[in-house]
Amino acid sequence: MRVFLAIEFPDDIKEYLDQVQQVVKKKSVKGNFTNKKNFHLTLRFIGETRIDELDKLKEAINKISLHQSYFQLSFSKLGQFTKGNKRIIWVGIKHNEILNQLYILLERALDEQGYPREENSFVPHITLGRQVVLAEKLDKINEKIHIDKMVIPVRKISIMESTRLNGELTYIPLYSKSLIFQ
């Protein structure tokens, strides 16, 4: 199975991201856009994993959740990753020291479980679309879209499976661990 560790969003946040995505779609020639129900914040992509390895992932998130209380995030602006002429368009997360510390603790916990540390730097974002061809420059689109600074509650960390159901990419939570409430 193909898995990743993530922060899941409540429905109102997914609805908002869908509204932003609709504007981006209108400003795009084409793209492979994320299904609204799949919006999330990836903390760490793991990849192909055997079912018996899930216990190591559970142990890692259980360990960090013991020391991490609920916190909140907010959106920043639209951004992109480019590879050649292919673009991933995303909504960024405003700098958040608690999220950065959570990521560092997660990396340590995963390293202790035998997962090598991530080589790329952590750029927290929510993917709106892949292989997007924009009709105009992203700077121009950013000028037209006001990204709301709404509060995004972070209450748990989840192990998610990426699979296809009836031909549709679907993310299924396999295990979630609540953060402590203070």
TrEMBL record:
EC numbers: 3.1.4.58
Reaction equations catalysed: a 3'-end 2',3'-cyclophospho-ribonucleotide-RNA + H2O = a 3'-end 2'-phospho-ribonucleotide-RNA + H(+)
Keyword terms: Hydrolase
InterPro entries attached to this UniProt entry: RNA_CPDase
Transmembrane portions of the chain: none
Motif stretch (HXTX 2): 125-128
Active site (UniProt): 40, 125
Top-level taxon: Bacteria
Motif (HXTX 1): 40-43
HAMAP family cross-referenced by the UniProt entry: RNA_CPDase
Entry function: Hydrolyzes RNA 2',3'-cyclic phosphodiester to an RNA 2'-phosphomonoester.
Similarity field: Belongs to the 2H phosphoesterase superfamily. ThpR family.
Name the record gives this protein: RNA 2',3'-cyclic phosphodiesterase
Lineage: Bacteria, Bacillati, Bacillota, Clostridia, Peptostreptococcales
Gene for this chain: thpR
